[in-house]
């Protein structure tokens, strides 16, 4: 289905369906979201929905891709300068901590994952791949820091990347439950502080001067 060449109108319709499907799945869950709800929300007919997404699995797969692309695009942007410095990690944390609705909105990809693991839909591989790409953004940045002499040689970029991503997901969940940004802030600061323990003296000194 993804190989189909769509017209501009077709692309807009498909994007509208995905946007509403993502919102419905986020608020109601995968099982509770049905075609009637989606048709009404997106303002489309049953034949249109079936044309773009003939099965629920194909729809959920597309929602995973759509949500993942939003997250990955942000993390690959110039805003965080490829995570090549400890400062960029701090800026990443500040981005979410300063956003007033972070604990209300949560992580759409993380919420989607929690829904999907409770279903029998055969989409776990695609979801796992999305999280691996997210982790790899951190891992690649940390590896560059090590190559540039900003992190000690014994730093393990993969393990540290898992730590950062886990801190974000766990901290975000606790923040949503508490309706308070503090758990997310504490988790991210602690994770970044651990990464700092691998900073070479010169890099640490520059950071302290800022």
Succession of helices and strands: HHHHHHHHHHH
Helix-and-strand structural type: mainly alpha
Major sheet summary line: none
**What is the strand tally?**
0
Q: End-to-end span in angstroms?
A: 50 Å
Mean pLDDT: 89
Taking all Cα atoms into account, the compactness measure Rg is: 20 Å
What overall geometry do the principal axes of the alpha carbons give?
elongated
Poorly predicted runs: none
Strand percentage: under 5%
Q: Can you give the helix content as a percent range?
A: over 70%
Q: What oligomeric assembly is this protein in? A: single chain
Q: Count of helical segments?
A: 11
Task: Provide structural commentary.
The protein is mainly alpha-helical and 210 residues long. The chain is built from 11 helices and no strands. It has helices at residues 8-28, 35-42, 46-52, 56-75, 86-98, 102-105, 108-116, 124-147, 157-178, 182-196, 201-209. Helix 1 (8-28) packs across helix 4 (56-75) and helix 8 packs across helix 9. The model has no long low-confidence stretch (mean pLDDT 89).
Name some characteristics of this structure.
210 residues, mainly alpha, 11 helices, 0% strand, elongated
